[in-house]
Every structure is written in C-alpha cells, then in structure tokens.
Amino acid sequence: MITQENINELNILLKDAKPSEIIQKAFELNKEAVVTTNFRPYEAAILHAVVSVETAIPVVWCDTGYNTPQTYRHAEKVIKDLNLNVFLYVPKQTSAHRDVVMGIPSVDAPEHALFTEQVKLEPFRRAMEEHKPKVWFTNLRQGQTAFRDSIGIFSLSKDGVLKVSPFYYWSDADLDKYLEENNLPNEFKYFDPTKALENRECGLHA
Prior knowledge:
The protein is an alpha/beta fold. 40% of the residues lie in helices and 12% in strands. Residues 34-185 form the Phosphoadenosine phosphosulphate reductase domain.
C-alpha cells in the first residue's frame, strides 16, 4: 500500500524526469495499470508515451456519446496508429434517448448532477471496477484547474489508486513539440457536455 509519504518522495524525486522515466517507475511499483482517455486535445501524447513502455496496457475510453465528429475521427486514427488496446465504456442510456427526456442541462440546473452521473461518472466507475487497476495513467496537467495545481505527478485517487500524470509540468508548447517529434495528431474540436467553462473540474479527478 503506497502512502502519502511515498507519493511526496516520488514527486520530489521525479519532478524533472522525462515522461518515459515516470511511466517506467510507475510500472515498477505495480504493473496492474490502465490509461484513461477521452481523446480531447493532447491525449495522443499520454497514449503514445504509455504504450511506448507497455504496448498492451488497457486503454479505457469513456465516451459520453456527445463527442464531435472530429473527435470520433481523431480517436479512430489514434487507436489505429498506436494499435491501442481499447476498452470502450458508454452510458447505459443513449444520447438520443436522453435528449428527449433531459437534454443537456446547464451546470446550474438541478438535472446537471444526474446528467454528469449518467454520461461520465457511472461509466468510469464501471470501467475501474472491471479493471481494478492499482496504477492509473492520466494526462492531468498543472494550470488546468485549482485542484489539479495541487496534486503533483503522483497522487492518490479517492479509491486509493496511484494516479500518474507524466506530463504534469508540461505546457501546451511542450506538448505541441512532443506531438510533432512523434508524428502524432491533435484535435481541438472537442466537446464535454458536463462543463460550461473549460476550467471546470470534470468529477473524475476531484
């Protein structure tokens, strides 16, 4: 069982490490790992970095059902190019059905919590319950939200899973260079139906 003290030590030790070194260290701690993605901008970087170390790692894609055509095309290209071992999780109700009975509520509407539970939180919990990872790779970065500014490269999820963010200190410019050097695509026409503002916390990481 990893402790907060262990995490603090790792964050100090690997603050200036390359993403590949951080990922390698995480696998040394425990090989029962997943990487999660929603194929938003810059997700190709974390997927490339992780599968470059462990090609068969389960890639958990929780698709809200509201992605743009551009995001779906981007996802298909990245999955094919990186030969990803994708496990797809979708809400139990289709977006077409939900559009009739609820629509996409504003963040201030009473239905927003239920909407977020249906399209994001429940599929994510189902994924984590099925895979039961000890290590969870994600592309959280400093500067995205106040909460994310506080966690570091290594952190513990609410359920005690070791969360690893290899690009935590990287800027958009750093990631642009990584994508270019590794011939990876990017896509900015991304839509998250649970957020009104870009800097809202999505619920999975808080």
